[in-house]
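Hey, I'm writing a tutorial for new members on how sequence and structure tokens pair up, and I'd like a real worked example in the thread rather than a made-up one. If someone can provide the structure for the chain below, I'll link this post from the tutorial.
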Amino acid sequence: MMPRPLVVSVVGFQDSGKTQLMERILQMWTRQGWRVAVIKHDGHLQETAPDDWEKATSDTARYVHSGAVATVLAGGGRTLWRDMADQAAEQPLVLCRRVVHRACQQGRPLHAVLVEGFKFHPLPKLAVIRQASELNWLASSAVNNLRAVVTTEDLVMTATALSVPVYTDGSVAELCADIEAGRLGDMRLVSG
């Protein structure tokens, strides 16, 4: 029996590098033979928006190219499993359990689920920070369950004030190893 999959949410401001970090984690874990699914939250999607989420340059397409075995895009009351009225679209834990369940039903259990977004939900989080003002926001915000920060070399010393481990963009291998070893706390999917 496979252990419960890891669940890691990557949060940050728009254009902070969340997608790039997730691609690098995906590539690393895929090279290790892991099966990883991705859930992306689109907090700006409106219920009446056109259904053009899966364009060739989209983040979800980038995740598939980086090795994701499944992707889910959620927001505006919809999920891109083509569920057009999904009450769980703003409930990332439910979405994680659903993608894990679907993978198990297919006989292809997951090692991990990477989640982009959902800043204010209780999933274990990595924050991608590019500016000192973002660190200030993170320190004073309601972001909970923050496990680590990924930032630039010039912000490392400032970021240590958050009292969580700090990684640079170049230390993704170390970050992945720490997640896998449980050094950032238990990040396995909570059953239920």
